Amino acid sequence: MTIAIYPGSFDPITNGHLDILKSGAEIFEKVIIAVSYNANKKGFLTIDERVRLIQESVKDFPNVEVDSFEGLTVEYAKKRGASVLLRGLRTSFDFEYEMQLSQTNNKLFNEIKTVFLITKPEYNFISSSCVREILLNKGDISGFVPEAVQVYLQELQL
Predict the structure, then answer these.
(1) Catalytic residue chosen out of the listed positions 30, 50, 87, 90
(2) Which of 17, 46, 68, 126 is deepest in the core (most CB within 10 A)?
């Protein structure tokens, strides 16, 4: 079974993330969305909130699992028996960063491969930071995030 890890902060998960996930779930037998924890970074949502919202957003994907981890992504991938890291690209700017990250991960664990998937054009401009900015300024995030995320974030009334 080919297991792919889709790592990220997903703070919050967006429709662009889900677009990449849908493609990945069609390609790989199992995809694990792995929410990374970084002690040096203050998150907008807690890890538990992110995991729960992602679980609600992907409940119709039978081959998708949601988990969280701390530390190096390649170490988590080894622990889970994954051979692929799934990464999404929105623009050419993403490619530079992702290429460097991919090469670093491959140097750390040469059996891991990174697969880049390109999101649909209608999601190119969506990022978690963009969603947070819109939300904090009382804007409408309905076209940017899954419904479960929209409802939860709007209930927070930030």
Answers:
(1) 90
(2) 17
